[in-house]
Amino acid sequence: MNYALLDRGDRLSRALSEEFHSLAKAKGFSVNEIAPDIVVSIGGDGTLLQAFHRFKNQLEQVSFIGIHTGHLGFYADWKKDELSELLNLMGSSEPRKVVYPLLHIEITTPTGKTEFLALNEFTLKSVDGTLVAALHINDEPFEMFRGDGIVISTPSGSTGYNKSLGGAVIHPSLEALQIAEIASINNRVYRTLGSSVILPKHHHCDIIPDPEEELFIGIDHLVMQMSGVSSITCRVADSKITFARYRPFPFWNRVREAFIGSV
Ligand code: NAP
Where are the catalytic residues (predicted)? Predict the structure, then answer.
């Protein structure tokens, strides 16, 4: 088995990386940072986001495994003291392959169209403070947004920024995207639905900002500044991320452990 490993860079994650490499070597696994079968992320859910963006052009070939240095995460199934158990299972059994939907984003500027993939979400804010933009669903005008911003999340990203905005938590087996508002201003001119909206795979939405507006565009943990944006189209991506599951950890158990605790 070929694997690539990415860690958060803190002392504990680096030490676990060393331990993983020596256990993996003893099992006959080899490191391949270019074309791995398995991508191992050691740190947190944020580290797995980084791993996803490093290998997002090889999603057909790679499966991801997350090891959390703290509590268990949404993308990180294994804890720091479970490396031997994980490596034993990797050496002796076939994992269940679990796929999660992704978000496809296409941004149009005078220089052309640029495409992005997000594992958690796309975030749009204005550099000047208040964002003004029209939202269309399936090419029909839906609402005129004015407020702090718009977040469009995947089902697995629904427990991230989306949840802080009051959005629904969506099971990642549903191929959908969710549009959530960040502090919309509502009056007679600018009127929004006020609740989050969930679109199925065969629908899409367009955000049409003022092209003069300087924007902050967030793709997961990455933020860039863009101007001249005439439209942004979001839809459920054709590609998916694959996780290698060596033991069951149901999504609703993750949600309960992260947000509710023991009942
Ligand atoms: P960060 O600001 O360092 O950490 C954000 C927190 O979100 C971390 O605790 C991270 O978990 C957790 N997280 C990441 N993906 C998650 C998911 N799908 N479900 C539940 N929690 C999740 O940033 P980061 O670590 O680079 O992560 C970027 C993400 O932060 C964004 O994609 C966005 O979802 C989230 N975010 C949330 C807010 C908010 O809630 N107000 C604001 C901005 C961004 P770990 O500790 O395990 O890494």
Answer: 45
Contacts of residue 139, defined as CB under 8 A and 6 or more positions apart, other chains included, come to 206
Residues with CB under 6 A from ligand 1: 44-46, 49, 73-74, 120-121, 156-157, 159-161, 164, 220-221
206 is catalytic: no
Determine the Cα–Cα distance for residues 124 and 24; give it in Å rounded to an integer: 41
Q: CATH fold of 102-238, please? A: Tumour Suppressor Smad4 (2.60.200)
pTM for the model: 0.97
Domain ranges of the chain: 2-95+246-259, 102-238
Q: What is the DSSP string of 203-243?
A: -EEEEEE-TTS-EEEEETTEEEEE----EEEEEEEEEEEEE
* pLDDT band for position 165 (cuts 50, 70, 90): very high
Pocket test for ligand 1, best of 7, 12, 45 (most atoms within 8 A of CB): 45
